């Protein structure tokens, strides 16, 4: 049994938390804190007696019935979420319905979908287990939290919030990151639900929030974000100018590799960036040095243009199609470089896509992501021709980058992180 069923809770939209998060299970506290950073709601919860914040007190409920505790905390939190959703629906009728968000970590990708219900909600899907691969059956504990009991938190949250919640692990082998991805995805999906927007389609609300006439877009323009690079080696001579300006100066790419030019042109156009990139490379050898160096240079220009990333939206996911190919890109401007993908590039008797080898297309992606210091998951939803796969990937990558790099003035220049910084 729980030591106490008393709970002091405060949840306010777009406000700082009024107190700490002390559920009596330290790892759960850390996960709920993701709602502060990523849903932009001020959450404070104190369960039972929390006279101090030392290790013992932080985990004072770890030896109680964690299933009961999880459902209790989820229910208390869910009741407050229901209130926020109802208040928002009254202020903006017709905007609240459903939302979806996938959150990328370097070792996990979890998708959360929220749907408003007219009655107590249900946890319609929950596929987080196994929690890691060591052991093969997954971890039983993360810190003092029992992994098998976490489902009860989301069940309580769904029931009390009147939201149907789906949590699907797309991939992942690190227990901590699987759970963190789930909480961040739920947090971001909730923010989108309250904003009346979705990652799946453009709408008037999304345009009002981040469109060309929005205050957020204008704030980004005021920062004059750009990056330039000029570099000459024995292998390549490269000149790049990139501006995060809505693409007003246009896009021009000339690397000597048509497929690579197409990829970066589509990426830049959908990212809303102006890009002037030229490269003279040793193509008489092969395309390796040119494809690699161009991708490195563009990534470094992105890092220069986006700076500390403080005040930015930071995360987004987009799905785009070209021909039969349909590709989703999930991105986090995390400063922790990692690319994970399931693109079906290994095909019988095919080693090239246009004038670019498939291994160098993959390496160009890796070089771009590593030097732009971002976490990217690419999910091939529907396969297509190699050419269409390249174009769909570029379009989705650019669209996702566009929204990740948007200024969100509601953050007041603060970094979207429970850690408070992306510099370490």
What are the salient characteristics of this protein?
four-stranded mixed sheet, 19 strands, 11 helices, single chain, alpha+beta, 424 residues, 26% strand
How would you describe the overall organization of this protein?
The protein is of the alpha+beta class and 424 residues long. The protein contains 11 helices and 19 strands. It has helices spanning 26-39, 55-58, 66-91, 150-161, 175-195, 204-210, 215-222, 258-271, 288-306, 358-372, 386-404, and strands at residues 7-13, 21-22, 41-47, 98-105, 108-116, 123-127, 141-142, 145-146, 163-172, 226-232, 236-243, 251-254, 274-281, 315-322, 325-332, 338-341, 352-353, 356-357, 375-382. Strand 17 (352-353) and strand 18 (356-357) form a beta hairpin. The longest helix has 26 residues, at 66-91.
Question: What would a concise description of this structure say?
Answer:
Helices cover 38% and strands 26% of the residues. It has 424 residues and is of the alpha+beta class.
Q: Which secondary structure elements does this structure contain, and how are they paired or packed?
A:
Elements: E1 7-13, E2 21-22, H1 26-39, E3 41-47, H2 55-58, H3 66-91, E4 98-105, E5 108-116, E6 123-127, E7 141-142, E8 145-146, H4 150-161, E9 163-172, H5 175-195, H6 204-210, H7 215-222, E10 226-232, E11 236-243, E12 251-254, H8 258-271, E13 274-281, H9 288-306, E14 315-322, E15 325-332, E16 338-341, E17 352-353, E18 356-357, H10 358-372, E19 375-382, H11 386-404
Parallel strand pairs: 2-3, 6-9, 12-13, 16-19
Antiparallel strand pairs: 1-3, 4-5, 5-9, 7-8, 10-11, 11-13, 14-15, 15-19, 17-18
